[in-house]
Design goal:
The chain is α+β, with helices and mostly antiparallel strands. Helices cover about 20% and strands about 30% of the residues. It has helices spanning about 10-25, 25-35, 80-90, 125-135, 220-225, and strands spanning about 60-65, 70-75, 95, 100, 105, 115-120, 145, 150-155, 160, 175, 180-190, 195, 240, 250, 265-270, 270-285. This is Prolyl 4-hydroxylase alpha subunit domain-containing protein.
């Protein structure tokens, strides 16, 4: 979600993905493979899958909901006080949220994206958040972090289906290998983060990472996942993450070859009451 994202026509996507190697120089392909292959392999041993795993001094807990692509729900990524400070820091900087094409062209279309966006200035809290993101075991250590931005969704505001990655383009010098979307204010109804092509259920290989080996606690596990996922939405609509202040969603945008992953199509659903604010932490790799 966020400012450096764009709309892609589904009819052109498959062709574009097939042509990716033709537009990516060999040395760049090798660089991307070296960067991503060791970090985004489903069997990577240091990626926790248990809902109670990865507790650190901030009491962060990670929940692996998908291994291909990597999608991880993060509890307690920031504290309530940190969330309030980030909200305060963003208030004077909001502008209508832009859309970006794969060539970097900037435009606006409030019928497609009606949120407001604020780029956060450098500050101690921003540096703390960046450092915490880098401390996550699934965050690539060699990537850069783009300036943090906050998205504000008032009543009825939304951002329809989009990707965080770019198709290869000679005018762009890199791509966004991963996203962390952090909920910093969520006094609202609606406004979930929907992945229409990501299908999860308690019986799936991803969701079952929290089940017992015997599979006998399925009802309890299903209730556990429903703390983070909107289980009231129809299953054919994909997976919708519920906004919870302090929590975050991490997802992998690019595969080991540096190609964008279509499954990461996502949307900020309309807010039906109140207001939602989320902060994007985008990693960046230069080509």
């Amino acid at each position: 979600m966020g400012a450096t994202l764009k709309i892609l026509l589904p009819s052109l996507l498959v062709l574009a993905l097939c042509l990716t190697p033709l537009f990516t120089p060999p040395h760049v392909q090798l660089q991307l493979q070296q960067l991503f292959s060791a970090l985004y392999i489903p069997s990577q041993p240091n990626i926790p899958s248990n809902p109670e795993s990865n507790t650190n001094p901030y009491e962060i807990k990670t929940h692996t909901l998908s291994t291909s692509p990597r999608v991880i729900y993060i509890e307690n990524f920031i504290t309530p006080l940190e969330a309030a400070e980030l909200v305060s820091l963003s208030h004077s900087n909001f502008r209508p949220s832009p859309l970006y094409s794969d060539s970097g062209t900037r435009s606006q279309d409030s019928s497609y994206r009606s949120s407001l966006t604020a780029t956060l200035p450098s500050s101690p809290i921003v540096k703390t958040v960046e450092q915490r993101a880098r401390s996550l075991p699934f965050f690539a250590p060699s990537v850069k972090i783009k300036p943090l931005v906050v998205q504000k969704y008032g009543l009825g505001k939304e951002y329809k289906d989009h990707y965080d990655w770019f198709l290869p383009n000679p005018t762009l010098s890199g791509n966004i290998p991963s996203t962390i979307f952090v909920y910093i204010s969520a006094n609202r109804t609606g406004g979930g983060t929907n992945f229409p092509r990501l299908f999860l259920s308690p019986s799936s290989s991803a969701a079952s990472s929290s089940t017992s080996s015997s599979g006998g606690e399925m009802k309890e596990d299903e209730e556990r996942w429903c703390e983070f996922i909107d289980c009231d939405r129809p299953s054919h609509s994909g997976t919708t993450f519920l906004p919870r202040v302090g929590n975050a969603v991490f997802w992998q945008n690019i595969d080991s070859k540096g190609t964008g992953i279509p499954t990461t199509l996502h949307a900020g659903l309309p807010v039906t009451s109140g207001e939602k604010m989320g902060m994007n932490i985008w990693s960046w790799v230069d080509y």
